[in-house]
Amino acid sequence: MFGLASFIRRNYQASYPKEVPKHGTAIRFGLLGATDIAPLALITPAKTHPDVIIAAIAARDRKKAAAYAKKYKIPIVHPNYQALLDDPAIDAVYIALPNAYHLEWATKALEAGKHVLLEKPSVANAQEAATLFRNPLLSKPNSPVLLEAMHFRFHPAWQKLLSLIDQESIFEAHSTQHAPKGLVPLYGNVCKFKLAGGCLLWFGTFNVASLRQVFGAEPVECSDASCDRVPPGNDQEIDRAFSATWRFINGAVGSIEVDMMADGGYSWPLTSEIPTIALPKLTIKHRDVVVEGDLPSDQEHTVTKTVTMWAWSFPFFYHRIDVENKHVVRTRLDGKTVKEWSEIAYVKDYAGDSGVDSWTSYRFQLEEFVAKIRSKPGTGVWVEGEDSISQMKMIDTAYTKAGLPLRSSSAKV
Prior knowledge:
Layout (H helix, E strand, L loop, with lengths): L1 H14 L11 E6 L5 H10 L4 E7 L3 H11 L3 E3 L2 H5 L6 E4 L6 H10 L3 E5 L6 H8 L12 E4 L6 H8 L6 E11 L18 H4 L2 H11 L5 E9 L9 E9 L5 E10 L18 E6 L2 E3 L7 E12 L9 E12 L5 E11 L13 H13 L11 H17 L12
Parallel strand pairs: 1-2, 1-4, 2-3, 4-5, 5-6, 7-10
Antiparallel strand pairs: 7-11, 8-9, 9-10, 11-13, 12-13, 13-14, 14-15
Helix pairs in contact: 6-11, 9-11
């Protein structure tokens, strides 16, 4: 009962936080686009940050921008994106436009001297990522801050997971996510190739990032990849579901399974068309470790660690980390099992050392973004530019292996 009460309290406070007074020198954000994700990703988290003000918005449709501004109490509506970037009162921008426009407007924002919080995926492919994150403007003194908003990495639960694994001993990791059918409309931007859409790039980018973080390395190759395309009559270069496997050093294997229109998977009859409801799951298996102990000389004791994180991509809503150590005592000669048992621990972490348990991963991310702008020490969690480039390289290898064309920007800088 206490767990349920805590769950309700945390999520209520995350959704309806009490706004704090703002500093006179608070960072003034402008929003490029009247997007669905901005309230969760920035507008609501900003309410509890004394050094952040959502000051302006611009969208292609000015009437839509005005209605959005009224709803979220944003004081300034600019006639277009460039006008917002030209506003000297704006310090930073949040870009959550369709993927195909990220490179263009992130570059223009940097040229205007604005800090950029760039929604994932950063761009459409690895070449574009190199163009953006190796922009000479970023290497100059007092350069703007550019961050790909891979929000889950900033949550204490994710950092706790990383502390519970031994990267050098991992031999297999599997990362899954399923969005129920009906959540992503076939007519939406995510299902348009010209806007750099697709399940892997939009949805699976989190899964790819989770593998890179778990292994702490880049893959040697994409050994297998396949996809299910959107139904006939729609853009056939768009993947609705994607599976891929990469080979890492020391023979380790990482795989993903993602579906942005998932249905079925239930054990009951006549349920194949019902939208799938499933928590994101990340399973990390370690190699056997021999345990020294007081055993007969003809026996060997090994322990195998498996770490599973449930709801890893949105850990602020709910999560659980299962740490299982499976012990087996075998005879050395024929490998016959003499005895086996398991030890399981359940771990959660919503606040970390310096946060609040009702903070979302987006709020933790905002904390680090502001600290970087202010040149203040943060927690050390960050997504470097080279990291974002490597992320896109890994995604590109999967699209190529699956026989799909790489995504690209429809607008040129």
